[in-house]
Amino acid sequence: MSSHAHPAGHTVHAPMAEPSGFIRKYIFSVDHKVIGIQYFLLALTAVLIGMVLSLLMRFHLVWPNATLPFVSGGQMSQEQYLALVTMHGTIMVFFVLTTAPQGGFGNYFLPIQIGAPDMAFPRLNMLSFWVTFLAFICILAAFVVPGGAPISGWTGYTPLSGLGEITGPGEGWGQTMWIVSISLFCLASLLGALNFIATTIDLRAPGMGIMRLPLTVWAWLVTAVLGLLAFGVLLAAGILLLLDRSAGTSFFLPAGLVVNDQLQPHSGGSPLLWQHLFWFFGHPEVYIAILPGMGVASHVLSTFSRKPVFGYRAMAFAICTIGFLGFMVWGHHMFLSGMSPYSGFTFSVLTMAIGVPSAIKTFNWLGTLWGGKIQFKSPMLFALGFVSLFVSGGLSGLFLAQPAVDNMLHATYYVVAHFHLVMGVAAIFAIFAATYFWFPKMFGRMMSEPLAKIHFWFTFVGAYCIFMPMHFVGIAGGIRRYADASAVAFLARLQPVHMFMTIAAFITGAAQLVFLFNFFYSLKFGPKAPKNPWNATTLEWITDSPPPLDNFGGQYPSVYRGPYDFSVPGAQEDFILQGLEPSQVARAK
Amino acid sequence: MPPTTTTEEIIIELIDEGNGPGGGASSGDGGPGGGGGGEERSSGGAATPQRAYVTGMVVALAAILMFFMAFVSAYVVRKDMPNSAWIPLDLPRILWLNTLILIASSFTLARAQNRFKAADRASFRHWWATTTVLGVLFVAGQVIAWRQLVSAGTFLATNPSSSFFYVFTGAHGLHLLGGLLALLFIQFRTPRKLSMPTAVDIASMYWHFMDGLWIFLFLLLYLGR
Fold first, then answer.
1. Which residues of B touch A199 (CB under 8 A)?
2. Which of A253-262, A375-384, B1-10, B25-34 has the lowest mean pLDDT?
């Protein structure tokens, strides 16, 4: 966020005047780059909070009777543990995995990579960030309202989430704050998605045909379409849930519910209806989290293999296919809801069909690496880590996709391990890859490579140490969301495995301090970054680091070739920038 | 990317330049797509091409459609639940009148659009105002329908059928109020970033969509009682 350096001279038009004043420039800015950084910092704050919550959970699982200074009563209650589960999931899924890759990097780099001066609707962009910020404040407020944070999980299943305080301490105010926060988040994401789609369709530079888009842009575009079609559904469901809680309606609440010996006044509602609406959003949400990561992985693997992406068209179509199929598989979260076996079978087949485009992507990532001159820079390491985690986590999905197997594994730690590897950690690795890759462009300075490598190895090994044993806990019957498994005879034997995972989690958590130090130290003291430190090809690398206010200093680029022209035969250098005129490409001597 | 300025757009821009100051912002139109390359972009740098606003409206309507379809699917599922306690709602008769008024507003709006394209500004403003008045009448009619239900003792939580009635009419009414604001704005002001043809275009798209949506919701509420 250092001040923008303007290039001297050679601009066709005078660059736009910077807004003066701190508030217009950094707080209520309409510049997509500032907004992208704002999203990124919001996600960074959120991920730290979410990580602390997860460490508290891991601590409690191993030492359930420990006295904690900041817990009222000294020992954590089961409800408090459930509140941790809920808040960890909500903060991580919405405010980290949805916010950082799309709102953060997407906002910053989508306009630059397509050669646009800004998003199509800059003020809408600012609005969507500030509504997201408001949603974040609301979810944090759930910690401090009377009764504390909600306990119904990030999925907010009814009837638990619909009845109010009687079902638990956090189900009064806390749950209401949760619904308000999620509804605001939906609204902000809809505005953001609208902006992304209009920008990609209408603001591309001359020559930037649809088959010349970097795969990151493809991923952001399809993610925006998913968000556009999914978030409205969650918003609608949230409104109905709020009415059930506060206006006495019975959309999701059945008749005859008795809670704490009190008959509830509702009649005829369907808890499963909530599950359907939620997962109709929830499954596309998984791809909202992971698709931008796939785009970043393709981008980074190609750059550091010095090779074009293997099968660019197949990669673009695979992204679209995953997005399309992602809307048809929500039922696989509900195999145990008593659905008809025929529905279960249909959802199962469609779910496994997603394996095909996913396998295409993995195959093409390996194809991109094959025979390349691989440079093990830190972004590359994290992109390779992404591929590894995506495969490890994705394969267990094929087991869970089968109702017969899911009957056994549902609501066990196997599921927790699966989605953390494939959606959580893999997406986080892509975010790290993106951070190390684009930090020089965003902040004009280089990050420390040795520190980044330390960070990578601890995080990579650590993530596997946490989540691989978790599969076995799940297969052995370890049930998720139990606050104290040591009190259950058949689960007590698994406690040593939990101990191993907890230690791994704390070490991995500590390794993130290396990243934080590297990030903030490099922000101030890192060596100055050149325009194109990685010898990459896309449009963000033709402009300054950091880019001027209108991205290209008044000189708008035209595009003459595809996004991954690495190691072109006959060219002098092993990369050709997308915006370089054919006559300017240096020939090999 | 193909050249983006169609004959129709050129005509619209000519009309607009002849009629009002709104055309200023549209000079950036066709910037990235124009044949000569991107260098000749207006010095503002960040001028958004007018067609992006149309794209934005189409995209927004898709999101709004999903929002309402979530309610619709909930309606279908909830109504046929076993033990759903569903009592069919007697729809207030005024809804028929309201529906006719809203359909009529789409016709007057189409007339206004037609007059705008014919550069007949006075007639355009006349038909546009008629549309706005019909819109206000529709909203007033919906409020009367609510009051009739309330005086009959039918509230939000009385029965799932009434819950859905209030949700549908409330959500649609809020969206329609947004459309009314747009109609009023265009009637009295000139938008800054949008050119007048674009503003008329997207406000009309929104209004026709809200009309069609209401017809669908009304049929659902009436036939799917």
1. 52
2. B25-34
Q: Is the Cβ–Cβ distance between A139 and A331 less than 8 Å? A: no
Residues from chain A contacting residue B28 (CB–CB below 8 Å): none
Of A304, A333, A307, A552, nearest to A436 by C-alpha is A304
Task: Read off the pLDDT of residues A101-135 as tens digits, 9 standing for 90 and up.
Answer: 999 999 999 999 999 999 999 999 999 999 999 99
- The answer to whether A189 and A94 are in contact (CB under 8 A) is no
Looking at residue A263, what DSSP letter applies?
E
CB A535 within 8 A of CB A575: yes
Those residues with Cβ within 8 angstroms of residue A67's Cβ, 6 or more apart along the chain or in another chain: A74, A75
pLDDT digits (tens, 9 = 90+) for A183-199: 999 999 999 999 999 99
CA distance B75 to chain A (A): 9
Residue A292 is encoded by which pair of tokens?
Answer: 């931008």
Prior bond of A159 cis (ω within 30°): yes
Q: Is B71 in contact with A240 (Cβ distance < 8 A)?
A: yes
Phi-psi region of A444 (alpha: psi -120 to 50; beta: other; left: phi over 0): left
A227's tokens: 């968000």
pTM score, whole prediction: 0.92
Q: CA A204 to CA A113: how far, in whole Å?
A: 9
Which of A200, A202, A245 has the most B C-beta neighbours within 10 Å, making it the best mutation to test the interface with B?
Answer: A202
* Buried-exposed string A181-206: b where 16+ CB fall within 10 A, e elsewhere: bbbbbbbbbbbbbbbbbbbbbbbbbb
Distance CA A127, CA A122 (A): 9
How many helices (H) and strands (E) chain A has is answered by 18, 2
Residue A404: CB atoms within 10 Å: 9
Query: Among A221, A251, A264, which would you mutate to test the B interface (most chain B Cβ atoms within 10 Å of its Cβ)?
Result: A251
Contact B23, B2 (CB under 8 A): no
Nearest CA in chain A to B59: A194
Q: Does A269 touch chain B (CB under 8 A)?
A: yes
In chain A, which residues have their Cβ closer than 8 Å to the Cβ of B78?
251, 268-270, 273
Is A228–B83 a contact, with Cβ atoms under 8 angstroms apart? no
Residue type for A151, please?
I
A208 touches chain B (CB under 8 A): yes
Q: ipTM of this predicted complex?
A: 0.93
Report helix, strand or coil for A445.
strand
**What is the overall mean pLDDT for chain A?**
94
Binary contact (B1, A208; C-beta < 8 A): yes
> Is the per-residue pLDDT at A301 higher than 70?
yes
DSSP SS3 for A479: strand
| Best CA proximity match to A477, nearest among A408, A416, A404 | A408
Minimum Cα–Cα distance from B34: chain A residue: A206
Cis before residue A546, ω within 30 degrees of 0?
yes
Residues on chain B bordering chain A, Cβ-to-Cβ distance under 8 angstroms? 1, 32-34, 37-39, 41, 43-46, 48-49, 51-53, 55-56, 59-60, 62-64, 66-71, 73-74, 77-78, 81, 83-86, 156-157, 160, 163, 167, 171
For residues A309-323, b (16+ Cβ closer than 10 Å) or e, as one string? bbbbebbbebbebbb
Chain A to chain B Cβ contacts (< 8 Å): 156
Nearest one of A291, A176, A170, A169 to A230, comparing CA atoms: A291
d(CA A325, CA A219): 15
